[in-house]
Write a structure and sequence with these properties.
This protein is mainly α and about 170 residues long. It has a single domain, classed as Up-down Bundle (Ferritin), CATH 1.20.1260. Helices cover about 80% and strands about 0% of the residues. The chain contains five helices and no strands. Helix 1 packs antiparallel against helix 3, helix 2 packs parallel to helix 5 and helix 3 packs antiparallel against helix 4. The chain is elongated. Bound molecules: hydroxy diiron-OXO moiety (OFO).
Length: about 170
């Protein structure tokens, strides 16, 4: 049976993963309507992934005898100044999520809840990968000038296809 502190902090994470999904969807819409189809594709795929993360917490809580609560989610910004701003915000948000996952890991250890600790290891690895992939995009972005944005957009599209292919192979 899940302890109440663990249940509450996992429900807090449900809200954060749900918000991540909506945030990336809002960014995807901005990118798509600004002519960046490749970047929009990458962000749509991220939004889907975040929804899957939220569902993992949902199922885990209910399976362990807790109750997943679907919260109201705050509205993300719908306009962005630039592609650079979008990816800087994605990185900042992912760093916040990493901190949030680490807080749950610490609480699980403190409460001697080793099942939850085990469940969280997937997220610990996932956060490492996500932060690295966004850092990689930001590095690329610094190399391209505004004039090369068209090529950059296509480059991101191919990154997404590669990521999708990698996932379906596992
Ligand atoms: Fe962006 O990752 Fe969820 O957890």
């Amino acid at each position: 049976m899940l302890n109440k502190k663990i249940e509450d902090i996992c429900n807090r994470q449900i809200e954060r993963e749900g918000y991540s999904s909506n945030l990336y969807l809002a960014m995807a819409s901005w990118a798509e309507t600004s002519g960046y189809g490749g970047i929009a594709g990458w962000l749509y795929a991220q939004a889907e992934e975040e929804r899957v993360h939220m569902l993992k917490f949902f199922r885990y809580l209910n399976e362990r005898g807790g109750k997943a609560i679907m919260p109201a989610l705050k509205k993300p910004a719908s306009d962005y100044k630039s592609v650079e701003q979008v990816f800087e915000e994605v990185l900042k948000h992912e760093q916040f999520i990493t901190g949030s996952i680490n807080e749950i890991v610490a609480l699980a250890l403190q409460e001697k809840d080793y099942n939850t600790h085990n469940f969280l290891q997937w997220f610990v690895t996932e956060q490492d990968e996500e932060e690295a992939s966004v850092r990689n995009i930001i590095d690329k972005l610094r190399l391209v000038g505004k004039n090369n944005m068209y090529i950059f957009d296509r480059d991101i599209e191919s990154l997404r296809k590669k990521g999708t292919a990698d996932q379906s192979a596992t």
